[in-house]
Specification:
Blueprint: E1 8-9, E2 22-27, E3 41-46, E4 52-55, H1 63-68, E5 73-78, E6 81-91, E7 98-109, H2 112-118, H3 123-139, H4 147-160, E8 170-179, H5 182-268, H6 270-280, H7 285-311, H8 324-339, E9 398-399, E10 402-403
Antiparallel strand pairs: 1-2, 2-5, 3-4, 3-5, 6-7, 7-8, 9-10
Helix pairs in contact: 3-4, 5-6, 6-7
Length: 410
Amino acid sequence: MMSQPPQWQQDANRHTVLADPVVTIQELSRFKPLRTTRIDHALVFTTVQGGLDTYLPPSRPSRTELATRRWTSVYEVDTGRHEAVAVLALTSQNDAFQFEVSLNCTWQVVEPAAFVASGERNVPAMLQRLVEDAIRPVLRGYAMEDSAEAELHARKAIEAAGPLGVRAGLDVRCGLQLRRDEAALEQARRLREIAFARQKLEPEHALLMREDELAAERALAQGQQRHHVELQQQALDHERALDRGRQELELQEIEAKKIEYYAYYLERGGPAAMAFQLARHPEDARLVMENLRQDQLLAMKNQLTVAIQALGGGPGGLEEHQLDEPRRLAANIIKEVLGGPKPAQGPTPPPPAVEGAVAGAEASADPAQGRVPGPAAASDPPVPDGGAAPSPPPQDGPLFGYSSPPRPPR
């Protein structure tokens, strides 16, 4: 004989989240066997008189009991531990703001007969109702800002209400967390961010001020350093300018002396200029001597031409009374040459040194040797009638027929 189908049945297994722990309700008959049940579920049998007989797992009634006890129905109750999570919105002291209560409970049927007798069909809803009844009056006395204190007193109120669900045969353990609403939390977050920003701003402001001070000090130090360097550079430029001015003045003085020195010799020409050239370039000695001989012959020729023109009379010549003295001098010279003994030929004077070429006659210390041959250098001049020795020629005597120039500037 087949068993009768259950009047109430939940397709639930061990991991199914349950709101009602009664899994099945089955009507019993004396002529129909009991339907197979899970071994971990409790069985609650009801009698005609309204009594309840409980068989906790793994106990099960025998066939004799099923036949003799006259049970009318059986409740299969899940005795496992389940969780119930809920979020409640309860009014605070100000009706405009509500606390957000997070409820996290675990429940278990420990007295199946009591639960069946209670008639509860939704355990999480029952727990929310019990918690709300316990804490609502408490939260009405606190403002939104006092959420921590309100949570503490709400927990005390739940403890004072006694074990939840005990009348329904439940073992309940609840955890409660109180939070302000989202608007209040957002406002608190903004205030906290503002406070953090203010706290962060103060050291940042001090740091920025310090950075500005250091930057100003650094800029001032750099400016002073640049100013000092510029002053030193200007002083060095001034000293260089003074040195260049002094050098230019010295160069101008040297150039002026050189110009005066060169002009002295170049203005006089003749032996002086050639001696200057010989002093500068000793290798040109032969060329200088040849030029001196040519200049000497040219000077003697010019003097002879002038003398002949002067003695010859005619236009440009001397008058008759002006020729007496030249004729007398010429006669005396002829007489001395023809009548007097021929003097010994003196040694040829050595050529003057290069350094003394400008001075001329100063190169010789002996008066007899310092005589420079003139146009008639072949013989010595006649001795006067007194018999005295001829006086030495002056230091500035003629050189190769030219009068010696004055001393050059030093």
